[in-house]
Amino acid sequence: MIEPQSITEAVPFSDVVARVSDLEAIVASSLGQAPPTQAPVTGASFATTLSAATAQGTPGSSASALVSAAQSQVGQAEQPPGSNDGPAVATYRTAVQGAEEGQPWCADFVSWAAAQAGKPLGDAGQGLGSVSEITSWAQRTGRYLPAGTAPQPGDLILFGTEHVGLVESVNPDGSLTTIEGNYENAVTRVHRMPGEATGYVRV
Predict the structure, then answer these.
(1) Rounded to an integer, what distance in angstroms lies between the CA atom of residue 103 and that of residue 16?
(2) Quick one: DSSP state of residue 95?
(3) How many Cβ atoms sit within 10 Å of the Cβ of residue 56?
(4) Distance between CA atoms of 112 and 127, rounded to whole angstroms?
């Protein structure tokens, strides 16, 4: 039987591994199964495994965070309309190195949302201020998905070289709900058909 031990007492890693193995054996025995067999776990391999698991996170967690960031901005608009500027737009520009006032900001918006999700766009996470830059980066890094690919929530949706948005959801009829910055001078939820897209980017 494993004796309880004070949490303030240092426990060698080898003892921890041994105790886990003992617990596995007890559980397997109670279920009528053979005890599990596995290669010994070293401190280095354990740390590597833990680090990798932490880096990967929960599947889809980054996409969900990206969608949530975009959803939080629906309704934010230019001030004044047609200016490509305003407090919210200025915030989105902070995600793109070298972004300038008064320029189309759909790419700034998705760069901002991606940065909020911990997945900044660009080789150095500097953000990307144009659709062509996003497309080029995605193609170079294996993130580009051609038109006709089934998109997923969190994918960027490309419309030629002029506009980019974010897929919020894929609807039962195959249509898409997107969130797009600089659509009618605001962050807007839009209903799209897949045929409108010229490609996607899986961030």
Answers:
(1) 58
(2) T
(3) 10
(4) 8
What token pair was written down for 102?
């008064």
Angle between helix 13-30 and helix 43-56 axes, rounded to 10 deg: 70
The H or E element that residue 179 is part of is strand 176-183
Pairing of strands 176-183, 144-146: unpaired
Mark the ranges of the chain whose per-residue pLDDT is less than 50: 1-18, 20, 23, 27, 31, 35-59
Domains in the chain and their CATH numbers? 13-55 (no CATH), 59-201 (3.90.1720.10)
Widest distance between CA atoms in the chain: 73
Provide the token pair at 174.
């195959």
Q: What's the start-to-end Cα distance of the chain, in Å?
A: 49
What are 68-86's pLDDT values in tens digits?
999 999 999 999 999 999 9
**Measuring CA to CA, which residue among 168, 174, 166, 163 is closest to residue 201?**
166
What is the C-alpha to C-alpha distance for residues 113 and 142, in angstroms, rounded to an integer?
A: 20
Q: Can you give the pLDDT at residue 32?
A: 57
| Tokens at 72, concatenated | 């939080």
pLDDT at 49: 34
Parallel/antiparallel/unpaired status of strands 156-159 and 176-183: unpaired
Q: How far apart are CA 30 and CA 11, in angstroms?
A: 27
Report which of 166, 160, 199, 198 is spatially closest to residue 181, judged by C-alpha positions. 166
pTM for the complete prediction? 0.72
